[in-house]
Task: inverse folding
């Protein structure tokens, strides 16, 4: 509960759901139409085509009326059989949850990663994947599953390097990538990186409310799905692919969220994906300038893989990050991401994705700085000043320049 009567806008600076732009809210407010009528098919075909552009694929992208977790399940259920070994890499809390899901579905996940807390502070080590696949000479491992942007830590992973590692061994496993929080904020290339199934969601870079999620498919993934043994019905790709040919779904799709998706895709493609990525990189750099000026640690320890989507801010020893976060929420109506899993209470996460601008981020950083001071944390300097300097000195690339 807030310490004051709410006025003005709430600051939703968690790393998803991200703020939904008015343009998308308006698009979603149109009347729901007949999902089997002629108008709908045209909408379906248009938005599926634009969706492929954002995933950078020529192949099909399935859209589910489900959260990202549903699309995780769809990826596994469509391609694997009971007892299959899957190699999963521990980058953080979401990788851990996906691994738990694999176990619940009757798969045999092997969970590898750097030891101790280091794994949650670095990206996927492709050489570890390569070494494990090299040992697997009888090809018991059927899929390699990695998270592109680990939302619990603010660390990205080099997906092209994972593909290179698999190719170096000539291993036939499928490559599955969760870019639920990466897509449309961080560069992502389904085809070029040789990904077989890409999983994503609506409520992050796509700037939509939660409720729809995606599987982008390679030809190989589709071929493998024809023989995969895990039970599936709602998630089954075959009927959806068939219906999608004419822009329809085999069941009732989330019509109004699809209006929103269509609008979001227009916004992203009008701006140009490279400009979208540059905008996120710049915000992330401004936020990191603030964290450095505060004298606090960033959860990600490898500057090569800093996330453009969010920054994990580690609290000094003995400080309860959740208490700080709660104070900031109550006093300033600003939501920050909590520490998840192993990082619970150790850090908070600042989302800088989607429909933000320099000033919303300045307000966010001001809320953080005031809240940390009120919590008695002694800061080395003003992060707000450092970020103001960064944003003022580093003008955004003008969209028409590129
Ligand atoms: N994977 C990642 C990287 C996520 O960030 C999330 C949600 O934040 C999920 C999976 C789970 O998605 P959802 O909460 O939409 O089911």
Result:
């Amino acid at each position: 509960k807030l310490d004051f009567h709410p006025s003005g806008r709430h600051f939703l600076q968690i790393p998803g759901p991200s703020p939904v732009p008015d343009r998308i809210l308006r698009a979603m407010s149109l009347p729901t139409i007949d999902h089997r009528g002629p108008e709908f098919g045209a909408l379906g075909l248009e938005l599926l085509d634009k969706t492929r552009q954002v995933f950078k694929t020529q192949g099909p992208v399935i859209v589910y009326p489900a959260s990202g977790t549903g699309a995780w399940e769809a990826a596994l259920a469509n391609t694997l059989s009971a007892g299959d070994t899957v190699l999963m890499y521990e980058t953080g809390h979401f990788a851990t949850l996906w691994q738990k899901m694999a176990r619940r579905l009757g798969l045999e996940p092997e969970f590898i990663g750097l030891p101790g807390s280091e794994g949650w502070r670095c990206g996927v080590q492709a050489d570890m994947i390569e070494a494990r696949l090299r040992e697997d000479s009888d090809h018991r491992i059927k899929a390699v599953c990695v998270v592109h942007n680990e939302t619990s830590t603010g660390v990205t992973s080099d997906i092209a390097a994972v593909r290179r590692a698999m190719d170096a061994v000539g291993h036939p496993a499928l490559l599955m990538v969760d870019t639920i929080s990466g897509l449309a904020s961080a560069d992502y290339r389904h085809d070029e990186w040789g990904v077989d199934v890409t999983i994503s969601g609506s409520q992050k870079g796509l700037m939509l409310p939660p409720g729809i999620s995606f599987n982008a498919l390679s030809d190989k993934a589709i071929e493998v799905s024809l023989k995969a043994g895990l039970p599936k019905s709602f998630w089954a790709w075959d009927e959806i692919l068939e219906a999608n040919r004419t822009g329809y779904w085999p069941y009732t799709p989330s019509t109004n969220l699809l209006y929103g998706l269509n609008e979001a895709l227009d916004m992203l493609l009008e701006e140009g994906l490279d400009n979208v990525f540059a905008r996120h990189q710049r915000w992330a750099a401004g936020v990191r300038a603030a964290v450095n000026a505060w004298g606090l640690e960033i959860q990600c320890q490898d500057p090569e893989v800093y996330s453009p989507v969010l920054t994990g801010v580690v609290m000094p020893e003995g400080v309860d990050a959740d208490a700080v976060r709660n104070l900031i929420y109550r006093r300033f109506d600003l939501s920050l991401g909590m520490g998840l899993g192993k990082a619970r209470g150790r850090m908070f996460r600042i989302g800088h994705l989607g429909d933000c601008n320099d000033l919303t981020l300045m307000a966010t950083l001001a809320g953080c700085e005031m809240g940390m001071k009120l919590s008695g944390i002694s800061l080395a300097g003003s992060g707000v000043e450092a970020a103001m300097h960064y944003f003022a000195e580093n003008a955004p690339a003008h969209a028409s320049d590129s």
Remarks:
- The chain has 13 helices and 14 strands.
- The pocket of pyridoxal-5'-phosphate is lined by residues 16, 67-69, 94, 147, 151, 178, 180-181, 201, 210 (CB under 6 Å).
- The two ends are 45 Å apart (CA to CA).
- The first helix runs from residue 22 to 28.
